[in-house]
Amino acid sequence: NNMLHIHAGKTYEDARIVLRILEVVLIQRRKKITQQRLLALTKRLSVLATQLLHNGAVGALSVVRRVMQLGMGADVLLDVDSSLGQGIYSPELEEPEHCNAASSALWELTLLQRHYHPAVRMVAQHITTNDNNHTSQMPTEIAKLDSVQLFEHFDPSLVMFKPAVPPPPKNISGMVKAKEDSTFVQELEKSVHATSQPKLSSLHSEILRNFRELSKERRK
């Protein structure tokens, strides 16, 4: 249950330890874990991914993806039919064995498919479509690295965003300004024709004329 207390704040460095441990428990020692515990830890990894920065999220999802790849029955968490489990899912229980994770689903993947980082979106999409065996469709830096390696590879503390953020168009500020000016002119023209007060209409017309002259000078 302590997994759910890890987030992008002061407990963030603990995420590295959690990923390393769950790699061992869910992957290397998978034959020694019960199905109920497997589902519970997989579900908690999915929840954890929503609480971490992008490097932690992609690391957590990589463990989920590998669990799905190994065909350990965790794909039942992709089924939204909660009648498959027994009872109600209780995520607050400290003992994952008895939390009835089979009664839940990996709802977090819907959110993670809209994540700001492309790597997180990609892995979440692969898990959701149950397309986890087609690693050739994923970049090597994601498909071949384990969770801790991904955590370190995409570490934002290095002040590097991977992949690099493309720069905005050079004239984007001018484009935005031109759009704002056009909208302002349209609204002003409407007010000139709509108002029933001559003085106000005259004032709006004067403002509109001055604004158009100013716009012409800008374009020169």
Automatic annotation (TrEMBL):
Species this protein is from: Graphocephala atropunctata
Domain of life: Eukaryota
Residues in CCAAT-binding factor domain copies: 17-124
Protein name, UniProt field: CCAAT-binding factor domain-containing protein
GO MF annotation terms: chromatin binding
Family stated for the protein in its record: Belongs to the CBF/MAK21 family.
InterPro entries: CCAAT-binding_factor, Nucleolar_cplx-assoc_3
A single cellular component GO annotation: nucleolus
Signal peptide residues on this chain, from the entry's feature table: none
GO BP of this protein: DNA replication initiation
